[in-house]
Design goal:
By secondary structure, the chain is mainly α. It has 6 helices and no strands. It has helices spanning 2-17, 21-44, 46-53, 58-84, 86-92, 95-143.
Length: 144
């Protein structure tokens, strides 16, 4: 709440000195709200991002959901089977093979994680850009 009140106070202070600044602040505020809504919808789940932003048809959306569930379940089932048969795996000397299989399943599952990280970085860049626009408008209109 302190950050929000600081931003509003800064905008009000600049608007008192430079009345035209409120127009620029309004435009940047709308852009920021749009990018924040875009980020929230895509950060919840990648599936929601695919369905609502890219407007994928429902059949393809169900295929993506199914693929995600299959990838996740294969990782969990392999890990569970490895834990339950740990004594047998060690007895036959197959630990290296099971470890490499598990690493492969984890790599496949981590692809969605990296998409989330990229999404967060893009939002941070958009946020920094909107903040830079506010400062640029304040500087430009203070020189006029």
């Amino acid at each position: 709440m302190a950050t929000f009140s600081g931003v509003i106070g800064g905008i009000l202070l600049i608007t008192i000195v430079i009345p035209w600044f409120i127009l620029g602040a309004f435009v940047v505020g709308i852009l920021y709200a749009y990018s924040a809504a875009f980020y929230r919808s895509s950060a919840r789940e990648l599936k929601v991002f695919f369905k609502h932003i890219l407007i994928i048809d429902n059949k393809l959306f169900r295929i993506i959901q199914r693929l995600d569930a299959v990838l996740r379940s294969s990782l969990y089932s392999h890990f569970s089977e490895s834990l339950s048969g740990l004594a047998t795996i060690r007895a036959y000397g197959e630990a290296k093979r099971f470890r490499s299989d598990n690493e492969r399943f984890i790599d496949v599952e981590n692809r969605a994680y990296w998409l989330t990280v990229v999404n967060q970085v893009c939002f941070c860049v958009e946020k920094a850009f909107s903040q830079s626009l506010m400062v640029l408008k304040a500087m430009a209109w203070s020189q006029a």
